[in-house]
Amino acid sequence: MGDQDLTEESGSEEQEDQEDQEDKSIHENGVHRFSQLSASVQAVVRIRQKYQALKKRRLEMSASQPAFSSPRTSPKIFTFDAQSVNSPPVFRKKKRRKRGKVLYPSDGYRKVLPDRERSRAKNCLFLLCIILFLQIYNAIENLDDHVLRYDLEGLEKVLKREVFGQQEVRDNLMEHLKDYLSTYVHSKPLVLSLHGPTGVGKSHLGRLLTQHFRYMVGERLVLQYFALHHCPSNDEVVSCAQSLSTLVSDMVTQAEDEEKIPVFIFDEVEHMPRPLLDTLHELIRSRHMNEYLNVIYILISNHGHEEITKFVLHNSSSSLAGDSRGHVSRELVPLLRHSLVKCHLLWKDAEILPLTLLEKSHVVQCFVDEMSREGFYPDLAHIEQLAGEISYYFVGGREFSRTGCKQVVAKVNLL
User: pTM to 2 decimals?
Assistant: First the structure.
C-alpha cells in the first residue's frame, strides 16, 4: 500500500512539473511576439517622423527662394505610357491573320469539301447566248438564201459581158441590189434612177435587168413600162395613171403572197406626163401597207444628160483616168439631183446612177459584140474603120463618142 501511494505521488509531481514548463514557454512566446510588434511600430513611427521632417524642410526652402526664380521642376521619369510630343508617330505593322489549318481525319484520306451551290442565273445566261448565236447564224443563212434566190452573181456576169464602159455604174447597181435583196423586210422601197446621154447603154441595161428578174421571180412580178407605148395619147393620161396604180397594186399583192420582191422598170421616163409621175411618186412614198415597202423601182431617162456631158468633158484628164473614176459619182450626183428635183420630187429619195460617155475603145467592143451576134467575123481592121465613121469629142487626147453605141446596130445591119 505504501509503495503504491509513493508511485502515485511521484507521478502527480511529474505531471505538475510538465504543466509548469508549458505555462512558462507560453509566457516566453507571448513576450517575444510583443517585442517584435513593438519594434515594427517603432520603425513605422521613425519613418513617419523622417517624412514629416523632410516635408517641413522643403516647405521652408520653397518659402526662402525669391519670386523671380524659376520653380524647381521635378525630374522627368521615363515611363512606357507617356510619349514625347515631337516624336514621330510609330506605325505598327498590321498583323496578318493566319488562316486556320485544314485538319484531316486520322485515317489519312482527304475528304473533298462540297461545292457551293451554283446560281441558276448563269445557266439562263448560257442558254440566252446559245439562242442568240443560233438566231444570228440563221439570219446569215437566210441572207445567203435570199441572194441565191435572185442569182445576183449570174446577173453581175451578164452585165460585165454585155455593158461596156460603165464599170462604176455596174458596181453601184449590184451593191444596191445585194443589200436590198439580202432580206425580205424593209422600211422603204428601193428606187434606182439611171441617167445618161444617148447611146451609153441605159435601155440595154434595162432590158438585161428585165430578162434576168423575169426568169428568176416570174413574168407576173416584173413590169417594164414604156411611156410612149403604154400611154401614147395625152388625152388618156388620167386613165393611164389609174391603170398604172391598179397594175402596181395587183403585182405588189401577188408578190406579198409569194414572199418575193417585185421589180418595176420604167424606161423613157422623160416622156412620162406629169400625172403619171405624180402617181408613181405616190406609189413610191406609200406607207399605209407593208407590201409597198418591199418593191424595187428602176427609172431610166436621159434627164441631166447635158450636165453629165459637160462634167465628163471638163474632167476628161482626171475623172475617168485609172483609179480616179470613183469620184465621178461623188461629184456628179449632187449636181444631177439638184437639176432633177426641179423637174419632179420623184428624184428626191432616189439613188441616182449616172452613165458617162463612151470612149472609142468601148464603141469597138460594141461592134465586136454586135457582129458576133449577127454571125459576122469580127475583123479588127474593118471594125476600126466602122468605128472611125462615128463622130467623137476630142478632149485631152481622148475620144468620146457623141452618140455612144447608138449607130452600131444600123451600121452592122448594112453589112
Answer: 0.65
